[in-house]
Design goal:
This protein is an alpha+beta fold and 101 residues long. Helices cover 36% and strands 28% of the residues. Strands 2-3-1-4 form a 4-stranded antiparallel β-sheet, with helices on one face. It comes from Cohnella zeiphila. Belongs to the UPF0045 family. This is Thiamine-binding protein.
Length: 101
């Protein structure tokens, strides 16, 4: 499948009595880290780069992990860029902003 960029903001509904979303977000980011795909954490979403099928599998794994942590439902907001010709690339899109500014 084509090279893609996938940005995700995962929003699990917290189980009753739980007020801290950070452990859920940390688990989602741990799944991305363990996958080995290039990624960049931002303040509102995390962007991954790689084969589209692989990225979608990671999203499925992240959602499954939210349920295993006790979330009764999950909203995953996704932005997707697929470039079959040149391959989507964070480095290419950010080359003008090497320091993130």
């Amino acid at each position: 499948m084509a090279q893609a960029l996938l940005s995700i903001q995962i929003l699990p509904r917290l189980k009753a009595g739980d007020n801290d979303i950070i452990p859920y977000v940390d688990k989602a980011i741990d799944i991305i880290k363990a996958s080995g795909v290039p990624y960049r954490v931002g303040p509102l979403e995390t962007t991954m780069e790689g084969d589209l099928d692989r990225l979608l599998d990671i999203v499925k794994e992240m959602n499954a992990a939210m349920f295993s942590l006790g979330s009764p439902s999950v909203l995953s907001q996704i932005k997707l860029s697929v470039d079959a010709a040149d391959g989507a690339s964070m480095a290419r899109l950010l080359q003008k902003y090497p320091d993130g500014q």
